[in-house]
Amino acid sequence: MFNDHDLLDFLLVVAPGLLATTVLFAVLWVRARERALRSQMTQRSPDALSEDVTHLVQAVDAVAIEVERISEAQRFTALTLAERSTGAGGGKRVPERVITPH
Questions:
Q1: Under a CB-based contact definition with an 8 Å cutoff, are residues 76 and 94 in contact?
Q2: How much is the pLDDT for 59?
């Protein structure tokens, strides 16, 4: 009845249609999700939004503190390694602290 060539022709005809409908449904789903999120944001009270902003600010501050701790640890490690390498090799002086521009 059908051979492999007919099946291949059928798939070549049907595949673009399936791709188009898949993309269409994906776009429609994303738009519907965006509308739902926007409606949720507009229904929230100003107090809830200010709480979210406060929480976000606190989270950013916490991340900034952790980054500063990491940079201090890196400076200490670099200074220690530099002291070890100059201590074994001779008379180079290592600066007390290097201040880097931000």
A1: no
A2: 95
Q: What are the domain boundaries of the chain?
A: 1-43, 45-86
Residue type, 87: G
Question: Quick check: 49 pLDDT over 90?
Answer: no
Is the model's pLDDT at 93 over the cut of 80?
no
Listing DSSP states for the chain in one string gives ---HHHHHHHHHHHHHHHHHHHHHHHHHHHHHHHHHHHHHHHHS-HHHHHHHHHHHHHHHHHHHHHHHHHHHHHHHHHHHHHHHHHHHH--PPPPS-PPPP-
Q: Is the pLDDT of residue 99 over 80?
A: no
Rounded-to-10 torsion of CA 52, 57, 62, 65: 180
- In the chain, the percentage of residues whose pLDDT exceeds 70 is 85
